[in-house]
Amino acid sequence: MGRTPNPDLRSARARRAILDAAVELGTRDGYAQVTVEAIAARAGVGKQTIYRWWPRKSAVLLEALNERSGPAAEVPDTGDLAADLGRQLRMVIGLLNGDLGLIWRGLLADAQSDACLAQELRDNFFTPRLRRWRDRLETAVAAGELRADVPSATMVELLFGPVYYRYLIGTSPLDADDAEALIEQIFNGLRPRP
Amino acid sequence: MGRTPNPDLRSARARRAILDAAVELGTRDGYAQVTVEAIAARAGVGKQTIYRWWPRKSAVLLEALNERSGPAAEVPDTGDLAADLGRQLRMVIGLLNGDLGLIWRGLLADAQSDACLAQELRDNFFTPRLRRWRDRLETAVAAGELRADVPSATMVELLFGPVYYRYLIGTSPLDADDAEALIEQIFNGLRPRP
Amino acid sequence: MGRTPNPDLRSARARRAILDAAVELGTRDGYAQVTVEAIAARAGVGKQTIYRWWPRKSAVLLEALNERSGPAAEVPDTGDLAADLGRQLRMVIGLLNGDLGLIWRGLLADAQSDACLAQELRDNFFTPRLRRWRDRLETAVAAGELRADVPSATMVELLFGPVYYRYLIGTSPLDADDAEALIEQIFNGLRPRP
Amino acid sequence: MGRTPNPDLRSARARRAILDAAVELGTRDGYAQVTVEAIAARAGVGKQTIYRWWPRKSAVLLEALNERSGPAAEVPDTGDLAADLGRQLRMVIGLLNGDLGLIWRGLLADAQSDACLAQELRDNFFTPRLRRWRDRLETAVAAGELRADVPSATMVELLFGPVYYRYLIGTSPLDADDAEALIEQIFNGLRPRP
DNA sequence: CACTAATCGAGACGGTACGTCTCGTCTTCGC
DNA sequence: GCGAAGACGAGACGTACCGTCTCGATTAGTG
Questions:
Q1: Residue of C126, C152, C191 to mutate, interface with D, max D Cβ within 10 Å
Q2: What is the pTM (predicted TM-score) of this model?
Q3: Which of A38, A75, B29, C102 could form a disulfide linkage to B33, CB 3.0–4.6 angstroms apart?
Q4: Do chain B and chain D touch with ≥3 beta carbon pairs under 8 Å?
């Protein structure tokens, strides 16, 4: 029964093949069309070998995705807040629009009905980035660059919200070149400045 | 084969029972757990009667949802833009946090892998609301209340993006009382005003 | 509820179209493939019109078949028992091997799981023929032509049994030219006569 | 798609449960009332496990029946042809009148509209028995016990035909005690012997 | 000749079973 | 004991017909 496997005996070859197959299928057919069975077949691996090490297909694809989108996690700090934010938004948008975007989109969708995946997504992806940007923004608040009466976590949501809105709802295309304008608009607001 | 049924002979009773059953199951178990079979069983209806009038379970739930979220669609116009926006955001947030939110969440998730549903969602839900708010905002632009150099469609996304971000990603809870602050922040921007 | 329709108002046109359609479909696709729905469609008739006048598809096909196989029911009496029997067997075999055979075969099959159809088949088809031949055979018994110690009903079964055996089980083809030999064999027996 | 399963990995437990369930349902409700779904449910088995190993419900019931009617297949040879035939006929009649008769009847009926089942029935059931009896009868012919001018296959049909006729058409009951009389009548013929 | 039934064509309805698909677990080997 | 292979129990899918029902629109025979 629910025995826990011994990680020392784990086959690195199988793990690689599984993650690679998952990404290939996910980028080719879309997240929802990927099945554990298909991953196993393409990886030349038994289904059980997948279920032994991952609880669900979402976990496989999440791990595969994490492996390949490390760079997008890096928060540069050149001292120029707006420029750094712009670079970050461009990277995120690039990721969403790229091959892996299909997988990311599927994971976000899946998380809507899988609390456990949702938690993992937050813990491993959103919360760390949020925290790092919150720190940056709080520095800017302290420097008088940003308002002190808006929670920094809210600021992050104001900046990233519109990006994900376009991505998930698709009323208008998501373009990396919009990043800087977006930041400017959030920073300065929609009302005319005197 | 693919014969088209005659809407004149359609049973209003069956339609009602199906939509009601769909909502009950959707709010109780969550969108993903709903099956056409279960809807039919609970509605006391043959499966074929569902497939005769709707192509997919998503179509059933979308119609059911549309029926019951009429009020949230109303764009109020009291002359006070910020107040009207606040009222609308509160309503949307109320919908998302309410019973029907579970269904709405599932539809949005499903739309990520079903282009046809995505299109329908945009056509029947997002685009109309977007258009109405765009008009309101353009009036405000013309009145000098809002910047003329930001596309009004973008403005709508800046306002609603953060709401859906919180809703779908869940890093922080979505509270109707945040509506007014959100609008103020978007309107005035994150930089201190002199 | 179960109201009984008024035969005076019955549409002769519909009746004809239904019986014709039933035979066409039955001879073309085989009894089992015929559906009430298909009969109705091909006859240009509502399903209810069929169910109003016949309880089951088997009843429709039985009536259609009876209509068209009148001649095979005729028991000739030329005085020559063996010759008359031969003529009858030839006719029966001709019917079974003909277009209508497919329907007849299906009815016999269906009767195996439908006691009511089985009864009707016996009452309207087998028993009358059986009775008439029993009478003929009893005359022959009285004339000393046939053994008196074999029940005449059994004699009929000995004669027709092998025909239906071949027909339903199909180990060897059923040929009208075998009729006379068959009769001779049953009459004279398998043991050599001195 | 139509992959062929590996018989080495077949579950003996499932096979047993399926065949047992099929017989139970068949003898209780009759062949026509048995459904693959019901067999699966009663056997505690997935439907796919049935469809993996048998193409149709008829194949399941045929296999189940074959398994349990081994003895009725035995052709005894005590040297006394008539006695051996009598024993065989009694056995066949016993089978037909017994619990399994309901299944056998259904299979024969089904075979009328399923050429593939008909072939299987002939190949696995009728032809072997026919062949063995033909051999016996040919020996008797060579010994001068039976006429040389009647094909032995025909002789078998003359003997078994009346049995199946009564069984399938039901104009008179089928009784094991009729076996010997039947054989005597076929052997000696219906005409009085001098 | 209008009236008034009941039948008619049409087809939607509540059901049942079909045969297929995919899920996550269990079983069987070979290494 | 892991890994490849794949059979297994479970159960939803979307389709085909069943036999019943509800519609107007003919179509009789009756007053």
A1: C191
A2: 0.91
A3: B29
A4: no
